[in-house]
Amino acid sequence: MRTLIDIVEMQSMADGLRKQGNRIGFVPTMGFFHEGHLSLMRKAKELSDVVVVSLFVNPAQFGPGEDFEEYPRDEERDSMLAMKNGCDVLFVPGVEGMYPKGYATYVQVNDLSTVLCGASRPGHFQGVTTVVTKLFNIVKPHVAIFGQKDAQQAIIIRRIAEDLNYGVDIVIAPIVRESDGLAMSSRNMYLNRKERAEAVVLHQSLLEAEKLIAAGERRAHVIREAMKSLITAKDSARIDYVSILDADTLQPLDLLQGRILIALAVRFGKARLIDNTIMTC
Amino acid sequence: MRTLIDIVEMQSMADGLRKQGNRIGFVPTMGFFHEGHLSLMRKAKELSDVVVVSLFVNPAQFGPGEDFEEYPRDEERDSMLAMKNGCDVLFVPGVEGMYPKGYATYVQVNDLSTVLCGASRPGHFQGVTTVVTKLFNIVKPHVAIFGQKDAQQAIIIRRIAEDLNYGVDIVIAPIVRESDGLAMSSRNMYLNRKERAEAVVLHQSLLEAEKLIAAGERRAHVIREAMKSLITAKDSARIDYVSILDADTLQPLDLLQGRILIALAVRFGKARLIDNTIMTC
Predict the structure, then answer these.
(1) Which of A138, A159, A164 is opposite residue B133, by nearest beta carbon?
(2) pTM, 2 dp
(3) What range does the domain containing A77 cover?
């Protein structure tokens, strides 16, 4: 595995790889790898000849007062894990290289970016779409793998890839969970013991929703109330949103029909955790 | 010369050309070619192996009530002129292909886009930067040629190419003028005989500014007033702006120093014409 920090060097390597007929698979990350990230790398390996993993804690997607500074970092451990999971090139650009003085260009997706996490975190998705656009231009992938845990992000990335004619296949890989069902997240490390135990309710509330739907319930408010009462029964939980939406347009639904996304964001102490499930009704 | 209308076909051809080691030169246009456009094509030919010219009247860069519908079009003549001036591939995408139903992604450049033409034409530069981003992803050029006549556009395009890591050389070619000094523009065809005669004042006012500066004048307001009184002496002229700015940051200047841009936009009847000069003081 090679590690590159220089943008132009990464770009020339990508050009060279393409010229030689290689299919480039790309996994953009903010590092502090868990099994979720590693599953994306292995998926990329299946789908391409050369796997590039980027490791960049992107300041543009953190709002003022959010956890950019304390976001967990461990590049040495990440490097070892990446190497063992199919990564061929680890790309670790610096903040000054990515956003030099005078930087002024942003990519935004209307409508999809202002609901759910976009409502709680203004500017977050503009930061995500901007950095992904830059990374696509640097890494020049044929296929890029994103995790289903960030469901809204996945939908938005598909939109920019299509709208801006990237010609990059966007593959969405399933959520990887701890044995008790908690979705893996770098932010789980913020949880104390009590919060960690209580956070399991996120997955349980999604399972409850699936159960209600399987039993024929189609009224969104009934399902949301059932989920919310499970979650609020936990001392340390503070709901940000529990939403049921059309899985493609992200429009909220009153009655469930077609491909639906049930998504939630809940704070436990200083950790803001998200989880979701997609179903067809 | 080949003519392509399909986006994916253009993209595969660009991939193939790159794989074979060709340098792709790109001239994005809205068609209705005059000598200005043709000079860009010939410049592209000098700088690359394969010249792609796009012809797309981009609705996203026209505001409500602007001249999108009546913007002059003559694809047959354009095709012939392109072929004679070094174009290898003429790319003529359709509006539905470029902006399909559900299209939602826009690229914007802060600060640079809200002054000068951006102040008179809100949303104009977002339309320009978005379509250029898309065209860069479709045509995959090594070098792209823009005209100095759209000075603000040229500065903004350089910014997005650098900020979004396109790795595309942006070359700015000089303004091409009619024998009486009027800058060539597809919109000159909107002028009636009287307006056409009076529009020469745009270039004359720039020459007057250059003369004053050569004589040692450095006060921006003195130069602007001299230009404005020349222009307003013409019956049919309606000034949109006459500005003297830093040529890199587009910040207005009180005292001229360094690389400066003198730019103007003036309406003659239904034509809104622009012109400019760059000098070093």
Answers:
(1) A164
(2) 0.94
(3) 2-173
